[in-house]
Amino acid sequence: MLAELASSFPIIQQTFAEASEALEYDLWALCQSGPAEQLSLTHITQPAILTASVAIHRLWSQQGGSSPLLLAGHSLGEYSALTCAGVFNFVDAVTLVRQRGEFMQSAVPLGTGSMAAIIGLEDARVEAVCAAANEPDSQVAAVNYNAPGQVVIAGHTEAVNRAITGCKEAGAKRALPLSVSAPFHSALMKPAAEHFARVIQQVAMQPPQWPVLQNHGLMTTTDTVRIRENLVAQIHNPVPWTATIRKFADQGIARVLELGPGKVLCGLNKRIAPDMEALVVNDRASLESALQA
Fold first, then answer.
1. Terminal CA-to-CA distance of the chain, rounded, Å?
2. Could you give the residue numbers annotated as active site?
3. Residue 114: strand pairing partners
4. pLDDT class for 276, splitting at 50, 70, 90?
5. Could you check whether the bond before residue 35 is cis, i.e. omega within 30 degrees of 0?
């Protein structure tokens, strides 16, 4: 992850070194060499992706990239956006998302909850199938509205399995269980949110330098109390990414940059707002192309 950029721009490894000192393990070595099973643990994945995103943003700024009119992030990515906007100190953010991951992982015993991607079914149909699959002690709900015709569901494993069957019967093109360690953004994450609420109260925050459209509430605010509240609520509430990008479009934004180790959001964004240019920055060629744009 980011090896090519790091070979040309010292700011990448410098940022990872800051994170490694805070985490007390070599994050860069782990990202380059694995093992994959360790990287896939959410309390390690979350600091890794945050650090990569912040490192790319620092490089973007260092190379003269333009300032944003608006920022947003998908779930964990919201912390990257807030950090780049100056709300969090980077070291504080790395430590915070590690704790977020620990709380989310421990909220539900392994195997109790799961997630699945539903492809090719309208949001309302997915919601209706989930409602029909619910039982008093076994719940499932739509949790990630990623793009038109792409929704992720989460909840108790038995309920998710019932909903997978129901979505296929309702005409979904695909209904695929996801290889994740917990049912993120579902009501089962409420215990994690309660623990996280106590921790985030201790973290210093500043008003954002640029507006950040938060997942929960689909709002921008300079009130750090409200930002905290929205981050706590985000843990056990859906991520409305489709509505997020439509808000970008409604504000007349013509170009978005994905600053991070992958390009998943670029693909989603093109489906949500086809007229909006979507660029990714995660290697030298994409950096140069985005700077020219």
1. 24
2. 75, 185
3. 155
4. very high
5. yes
Instruction: Report the percentage of the chain scoring pLDDT > 70.
Output: 100
- Is residue 109 predicted with pLDDT exceeding 90? no
In 10 A of CB 130, how many CB atoms?
25
Query: Residue 234 in 3-state DSSP?
Result: helix
Q: Where are the alpha helices (H) located in 85-223, listed in sequence order?
A: 90-106, 123-133, 157-169, 190-200
Secondary structure class of 221 (helix, strand, coil)? coil
Pairwise CA distance, residues 48 & 31, whole Å: 7
Decide: helix, strand or coil at residue 154.
Answer: strand
116 and 184 Cβ atoms separated by less than 8 Å? no
Cβ-count burial of 246 within 10 angstroms (0-12 exposed, 13-18 middle, 19+ buried)?
Answer: middle
Contact residues for 252 (Cβ-Cβ < 8 A; gap 6+):
none
232 close to 193: Cβ distance less than 8 angstroms: yes
pTM, two decimal places: 0.95
Checking if the pLDDT of 75 tops 90, the result is yes
Identity (one letter) of the amino acid at 174?
R
Determine phi and psi for 269, rounding to 5 degrees.
Answer: -60, -35
Average the pLDDT over 121-150 and give the result.
97
Question: Taking a C-beta distance cutoff of 8 angstroms, is the pair 172, 120 a contact?
Answer: yes
DSSP-based three-state secondary structure for 270: helix
79's CB contacts (< 8 A; 6+ apart) are 46, 50, 73, 88, 93, 96, 97, 100, 231
Task: Name all domains of the chain by residue range, CATH numbers in brackets.
Answer: 3-107+188-292 (3.40.366.10), 113-180 (3.30.70.250)
